[in-house]
Design a protein that fits this description.
The chain has 206 residues and is mostly helical. The protein contains seven helices and no strands. It comes from Thiohalobacter thiocyanaticus.
Length: 206
């Protein structure tokens, strides 16, 4: 990477673009989950950016573990379980921001990108609207631009060249996307809909 992994300090441009990418990827869940979880997520994001701007290292391991335990406990308190679409996606989004807080080497940034891609896929368990698809394309573009920049030893901060290359990569994936869309249509099932195909809140309707 051209930078020592032990003392790696992510460039501000890369950090901002990565933060923007995970915000775009996680926004569908952030808008859907309880406000207290979203507030915690945003506080952690702002805290990590502030540390980077001040040139300070990521928080100590013990503090990250404490924050992780607190966040997981909060999710359990809000949902009463870890299994299911809602608590599972909330847990994924929270763990992604905790990995962003930990960011101390290029490999951590790559893992945040992969978690961002996974969040994009989870978003389609809740909606398959055209607007959501367009929104998530923007998120994929931002995350891919960061990934391309991480692979560039000469310029580790995302620039126009990285954004253009990320765009070309996405355009190159369109034919495969269309083939998969035709050959593998969405099949309703228990992972997407509650048992019996009944809306989640139908038991509340008298």
């Amino acid at each position: 990477m051209g930078v020592s992994a032990t003392h790696w300090q992510p460039p501000r441009g890369l950090l901002l673009t990565l933060a923007g990418g995970i915000v775009l990827a996680g926004l569908p869940q952030l808008l859907r989950q309880p406000a207290v979880l979203t507030g915690l997520w945003l506080v952690l994001l702002g805290w990590r950016l502030a540390l980077a701007w001040q040139g300070r290292p990521p928080p100590a391991t013990w503090l990250r573990l404490l924050l992780t335990a607190a966040g997981v406990g909060l999710i359990l308190a809000e949902y009463g379980a870890f299994f299911g679409r809602e608590p599972g996606s909330a847990l994924l989004v929270f763990l992604s921001i905790m990995k962003f807080v930990e960011l101390r080497r290029p490999r951590d940034a790559q893992l945040v990108i992969f978690l961002g891609y996974f969040m994009l896929g989870v978003a389609f368990l809740f909606s398959q609207s055209l607007w959501l698809g367009a929104w998530l394309v923007l998120a994929v573009w931002a995350l891919t631009a960061v990934w391309v920049a991480l692979s560039d030893p000469c310029q580790p901060a995302p620039g126009r060249a990285h954004a253009r290359l990320a765009g070309r990569l996405l355009l190159g994936a369109v034919p495969l996307l269309l083939v998969l869309f035709v050959l593998f249509p969405r099949i309703p099932g228990p992972a997407v809909e509650p048992a019996g195909g009944c809306p989640q809140r139908c038991d509340r309707i008298e």
